[in-house]
């Protein structure tokens, strides 16, 4: 049996992506959909494949020419796009002598195309056999028994969706006109009106994805990528056995999912489609994550990375975070986990710094004065002081003091690897062991910042005595790798804690007010209380002291929090 792959379309719903890349050449888990379909047709026993082209035809032609296939694969250019029916009529000289396969070039499926051919041969049809399935979004094909009654725009219980996969009888050529734009669906309707029978096949557990939309493209990449990961450890796998579970996210826009197949599970981190060749957050997550794992840091092992789709597949660490462990066990019983976390944090600061390439970072390469002033101090003023509390404080009036405080936090600091968001929600617990996640913001900076992020974290609200104990534990571990001046370390720690405190208030305000994540608002009162106490340590910033001490939550905010 010969086959036609329809690959001429403009991909309108995928603009601007398809302005430079034809839809069939969009990579899905690293492999273009066109190549996947050609391989499926080869496996089905097809003897020849035709590919119609129009939009960005040269790219498709060059792609086909660059591969050695086991059967002839030939591109046929349409100077004027002909539609699905017109494309079939245009190639009548190839397909006029026997039934042939026609498949859309923008779908992914695990359908046995050889079995479709056999279904058609066994069926009492003289027009075509279309593969249909239950897909509510596109259910507009009315079925009666094993044949199609009509193609309508309405939906109902007897309606199914056409998959874009079909075996067509040469009889169709009598219902198409050469050189005209035509729809194959219109031709099928005319064939039925003339008494020809259009049959259907409804295979069970069909895995099928339409790449015609960004939503469909993302889902196809997710499931295909996951299946490839599982195949590495399990061998032959079946898409029907794949289960996808949406997981709750944190303060970022990324989507987390758990994918399970045959009792094995992995986690995907979805950053969204890459917008171009520039280094991005997904790149940083992948590169930094692999480096941390190689350095011996307890992080999830990265199993695969699909740069185009922005998908990272990683080891599943379960659902228990350090924050949740504290909530379930209480601080005293969870203290061994904290001690383990700070021990590994000290080790990460030193070992992950070795061989760390600043080019891996997606924000800034270093935690420096400029970052503190822009992303922490200004963020605090704009998002919290003026945005959340509706004050009218002018950042420039406090800039001299803020510059001094920023300088003290970083000047002369011993460089190390910095996670930058090291708090109890980003530490997972599995089998009594701590693992660090959300490391894509990693860079070079002072070790004190990550320690402060964990200890003043309002999610867990550690008592000061516990914080002091953990600082001692951290310093004992850090001294195993380098000399430590305790007094100097603590002094810099206080500056880092101040900046982290301001940063978190800015973040809580922004996330709750602007990102529709109201749950973060409940941590504002404690974070503000801590800041008011912490600012007393900095008499060299009297204006900032006065401002912070004057900050009060309105009664409505206190009630909501």
From TrEMBL:
Source species, domain of life: Bacteria
UniProt xrefs under InterPro entries: Aminoglycoside_PTrfase, Kinase-like_dom_sf, Mannose-1P_guanyltransferase, NTP_transferase_dom, Nucleotide-diphossugar_trans
Aminoglycoside phosphotransferase domain: residues covered: 244-479
Residue span, Nucleotidyl transferase domain: 2-223
Pfam family, one: NTP_transferase
Name of this chain's protein: Aminoglycoside phosphotransferase
Source organism (scientific name): Desulfatibacillum aliphaticivorans
């Amino acid at each position: 049996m010969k086959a036609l792959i329809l690959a001429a379309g403009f991909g309108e719903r995928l603009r601007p992506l398809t302005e430079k890349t034809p839809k069939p050449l969009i990579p899905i888990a690293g492999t273009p959909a066109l190549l996947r379909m050609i391989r499926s047709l080869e496996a089905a026993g097809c003897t020849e494949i035709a590919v119609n082209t129009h939009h960005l035809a040269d790219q498709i032609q060059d792609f086909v020419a660059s591969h050695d296939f086991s059967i002839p694969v030939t591109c046929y250019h349409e100077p004027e796009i002909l539609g699905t029916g017109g494309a079939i009529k245009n190639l009548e000289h190839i397909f006029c002598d026997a039934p042939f396969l026609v498949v859309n070039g923008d779908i992914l499926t695990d359908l046995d195309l050889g079995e479709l051919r056999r279904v058609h041969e066994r069926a009492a049809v003289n027009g075509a056999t279309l593969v249909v399935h239950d897909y509510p979004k596109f259910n507009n094909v009315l079925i009666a028994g094993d044949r199609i009654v009509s193609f309508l725009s309405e939906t109902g219980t007897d309606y199914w969706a056409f998959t874009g996969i079909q075996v067509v009888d040469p009889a169709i050529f009598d219902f198409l006109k050469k050189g005209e734009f035509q729809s194959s669906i219109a031709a099928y309707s005319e064939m039925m009106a003339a008494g020809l029978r259009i049959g259907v096949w409804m295979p069970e557990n069909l895995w099928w994805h339409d790449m015609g939309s960004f939503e469909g493209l993302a889902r196809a990449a997710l499931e295909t990528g996951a299946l490839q990961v599982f195949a590495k450890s399990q061998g032959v796998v079946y898409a029907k056995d794949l289960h996808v579970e949406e997981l709750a996210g944190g303060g970022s826009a990324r989507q987390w999912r758990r994918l399970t197949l045959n009792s094995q599970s992995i986690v995907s981190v979805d950053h969204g489609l890459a917008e171009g060749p520039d280094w991005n957050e997904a790149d940083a997550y992948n590169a930094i994550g692999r480096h941390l794992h190689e350095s011996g840091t307890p992080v999830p092992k990265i199993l695969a990375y699909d740069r185009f789709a922005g998908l990272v597949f990683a080891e599943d660490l379960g659902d228990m975070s350090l924050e949740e462990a504290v909530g379930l066990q209480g601080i005293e019983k969870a203290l061994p986990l904290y001690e383990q976390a700070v021990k590994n944090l000290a080790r990460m600061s030193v070992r992950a710094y070795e061989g760390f390439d600043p080019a891996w970072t997606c924000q800034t390469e270093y935690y420096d004065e400029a970052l503190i002033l822009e992303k922490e101090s200004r963020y605090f003023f704009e998002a919290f002081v003026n945005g959340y509390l509706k004050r009218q404080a002018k950042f420039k009036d406090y800039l001299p003091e803020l510059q001094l405080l920023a300088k003290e936090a970083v000047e002369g600091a011993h460089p190390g690897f910095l996670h930058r968001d090291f708090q109890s929600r980003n530490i997972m617990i599995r089998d009594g062991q701590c693992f660090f996640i959300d490391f894509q913001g990693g860079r070079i900076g002072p070790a004190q910042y990550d320690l402060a992020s964990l200890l003043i974290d309002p999610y867990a609200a550690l008592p000061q005595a516990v914080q002091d104990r953990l600082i001692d534990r951290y310093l004992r571990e850090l001294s195993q790798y380098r000399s430590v001046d305790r007094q100097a370390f603590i002094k810099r720690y206080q500056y880092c804690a101040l900046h982290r405190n301001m940063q978190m208030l800015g973040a809580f305000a922004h996330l709750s007010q602007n990102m529709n994540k109201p749950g973060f608002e409940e941590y504002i009162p404690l974070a503000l209380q801590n800041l008011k106490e912490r600012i007393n340590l900095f008499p060299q910033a009297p204006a900032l002291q006065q401002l912070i001490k004057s900050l009060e939550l309105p009664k409505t905010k206190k009630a909501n929090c």
